[in-house]
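Reply to dn_fold:

You asked what the input looked like. This is it:
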Amino acid sequence: MEQKHFLKLLDFTPAEITHFLEVAADLKAKKKQGIAHACCPGKHVALIFEKTSTRTRCAFEVAARDLGMGVTYLDPSGSQIGKKESIADTARVLGRMYDGIEYRGFGQDIVEELAHYAGVPVFNGLTNEFHPTQILADFLTIQEHCGKLKGIKLVYMGDARYNMGNSLMVGCAKMGMHFVACAPKAYFPDQKLIDQCQAIAAETGATLEFIEDPMAATKGADVIYTDVWVSMGEPMEVWEQRIHDLSPYQVNKALMDNAGPQCKFMHCLPAFHDLKTTIGAEMGAKFGRDSMEVTDEVFESPASIVFDEAENRMHTIKAVMAVLMGGM
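and this is what came back:
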């Protein structure tokens, strides 16, 4: 594999993405069967989290330990990155001590700079622009439930301007899928990235569409995917505007029925499907809602495969580290 780092799916060929998924499926099977697969013994990985996470942290930590590696977790207060020490200096220090570095935080330029200076593999655990480890987990889950990726129609509902909309569009373009962004026009991905993905789609046979009408967009969908309407790090003040703009794009039973009985529901989590969280309860009371981007009825339905998807974060992250650090 030509790439040494895992920063965005744009850097990889369809064959390389397929290889990650094949390794993930193999390692998942081994874990289920209790077969040891510590292919990176004695190596160590540093996990830099400027934005906290449940799934990403746990997935990296368990995956690393399954591969025989040591792990150091650096929370938002646990390092001087970008504050008292530059990105370049942090990369060069950690690169002398660790065999790999994960970064979850803000701009894509930060993880790219880490990769430039580290001298060891760097993994993108999430930036504002891209979330590539999530997409591998999504694609492994789709393969498991639909039997394939090519030709699968995936409809992303809601704000498609940031990491999830961007990354799903890139991944679908790479793998010859049918991607639909369904949102108000102002919430579509950046046109420059759309053009880049259209060029990829011309080579892979993928279809990319951008539709404002939810019923038109979801007809015949194999997967309906959504994410929270207000992303991590955004101010609370944006809730009112997002609820106003995106309420017509909530995933509910009518939308799932419109897609058809084959349709699966996916969400990268966490989800505001009820009022059992602090923010969910606060926003629900303020705006008179019992759910946001997805109803509890859909989230808890047999069509929902969100927890298979969450588990697969571990298996696909393990595959990325095994390939780039262990040579699988």
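The radius of gyration is 19 Å.
Hope that clears it up.
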